[in-house]
Amino acid sequence: MIAMMVCLLLGGAMADRMPRHRIMVTTNGVECLAQAAAAALLLMHHARVWELIVLAVVRGAAFGFYMPAAQGLLPQAVNTDQLSQANAISRVGNNTAQISGAALGGITVGLAGPGWGLAADAASFAAAALLQIWMRFPAMPPAPAKHILHELHEGWTEFKARRWLYVIVIQFSGVAAISVGTLTVLGPIVAHRHLGGATSWGIIMAAYAAGSVVSAAVMIKIRFRRMLMAGLLAGQAFALLLFALAVPLAVSLTAAAAFLSGAGAEVFEVNWATTMQQEIPLTMLSRLSSFDMLGSMALAPVGAIVAGVLASSYSLTVILTTGGLLIIFFTLIVLCVPDVRNLQRSQQPSPTPESVDG
Asked: Containing H/E element for 137?
């Protein structure tokens, strides 16, 4: 995670000056080789912890370059009026892959062992790279030769100039800290003490994932005029899961709250991606996306640590209730910003240029 966060800004700058799909192909290749090396070490029974850590750092660094390129790629493929549907379709694919990938990973490791599980993962990176080699996208405007630090400064200047962008990134960093603390620390503790253990928590997390998939599918057809307002209001549904765990409610009711939480989070994700792609020039999108991702994730590790510390000293009911109220409070504060509240979807389609080898 640290390696990824360190590389995000540099990855964003590079993705705004180079063909994005080629960066994705290269990083997928690096991730394939790193996973294949880890698989080989395990299969030969020579794996050491420090070796696996080094390979994890390599994969994290590669992912730090991959993510900004991937964020900036979709607007090169569709018209502006198709962005919302395209983002929703992409999210359906991502969420379905995460669910099925976790299941297939567990089955593979259970039947054949972790070495073969990592080998299968390496093969998936290779397949992704091969598929992306054949992509063709509209040519980007020629970028003037600038030092990478100048481009990062330019991206930071553009980031600060958009109040709707930086206030939501700040808000989401707090929400992400609470979410990570809940999903990785507090929720499992509640499940262990009151809901029957890991099986119950698995059901609750499966319901959360199902809500994400269903919501993304629905968002293919629904387009909100005030995208940020709709996304922020829907995102508050995550507080329902915290309140359900605070009681705690029965597993079935908590799972229902998790389903609504996942659905609300997905409405936010689709509208947020569409807003950034609509409002930010294509030549700046990867850089500003990297600032967004770095800022949004900055407090996530802190959230997990703080949740563990608080859980050892205070009532889980108080902690979870406070977390849910903070999510609502943060959202209401951001909605007081006119730039956030009044931003609207563009009604004008833009033509897609002829595809060339980018």
From this structure: strand 137-138
